[in-house]
Amino acid sequence: MWRAPARVACVAVLLVVVPVSGPAAQPVSPAGLGRGDVTFVFHSTIVGALTGQAAIARAEFSGERLADVRGSAVVLVAAMQTGNGQRDRHMREAMRADSYPEIRFDLDSVRVGAVSGDTSGVVLVGRVTIHGVTRPLAATGAVVARRAGEDVTASFGLDMRDYGITPPVRALVLRVAPDVAVTVHLSFGAGPGP
């Protein structure tokens, strides 16, 4: 899976759980997930860039300090939407949503980078499972402390072929590229998120 830095895995998923603030030595606030979503962008011939979104179905974490946080997050394939019902059906068929209904990210470690004010740069390292295939993932992002919680944003790329998913082709001319760009937003605790 480590073909190139832009091809670190998962959809939607995804998903990153680092509900903490401050540098690695700072305590973690035990806030619950307020909301979370995943945005994914892929390209096709004729149509160009297409954007989809899905809510994070569930997420949990543990750890007393940012560098010690471990957790998981899940996105339901059936919840992934692009704004076009037929395209969504084709996407779910390609991902075999009936057999593989969830995309799961398990966070194994957090590498804390630069800290500036209430924002900590992070690299979230773990494993993502899509279409029954588990691969390593490293996502770059930031944790922003708020008065009543934390917000996490992380981005990464994936190649759907790495997960045994054949990019859809329709009418021999509409082809979907295998590369997908993913952005995850999570808000923990009370109050508005990003």
What is the secondary structure topology, with strand pairs?
Layout (H helix, E strand, L loop, with lengths): L32 E12 L3 E15 L7 E7 L8 H10 L7 E15 L2 E12 L2 E14 L2 E11 L9 E2 L3 E2 L3 E11 L5
Antiparallel strand pairs: 1-2, 1-10, 2-3, 3-4, 4-5, 5-6, 6-7, 7-10, 8-9
What can you tell me about this protein's structure?
- There is one protein chain.
- By secondary structure, the chain is mainly β.
- It has a single domain, classed as Lipocalin (Beta Barrel).
- Helix content is 5%, strand content 52%.
- It has one helix at residues 85-94, and strands at residues 33-44, 48-62, 70-76, 102-116, 119-130, 133-146, 149-159, 169-170, 174-175, 179-189.
- Strand 5 and strand 6 form a beta hairpin.
- The protein is elongated and about 50 Å long.
What is the gyration radius calculated from CA atoms?
A: 17 Å
Number of strands: 10
For the record, the count of structural domains works out to 1
Average pLDDT score:
79
Largest sheet, order of strands side by side?
A: 1-2-3-4-5-6-7-10
Look at the structure and give the CATH class.
Mainly Beta
* Intertermini distance: 30 Å
CATH superfamily: Lipid/polyisoprenoid-binding, YceI-like
The CATH architecture category equals Beta Barrel
SSE order, as H and E? EEEHEEEEEEE
Number of helices: 1
Q: What would the CATH topology be?
A: Lipocalin
Major beta-sheet overview:
8 strands, antiparallel, barrel
Tertiary shape = elongated
List low-pLDDT spans: 1-30
**Helix-strand category:** mainly beta
Q: In percent terms, what proportion of residues is strand?
A: over 45%
What is the share of helical residues? under 10%
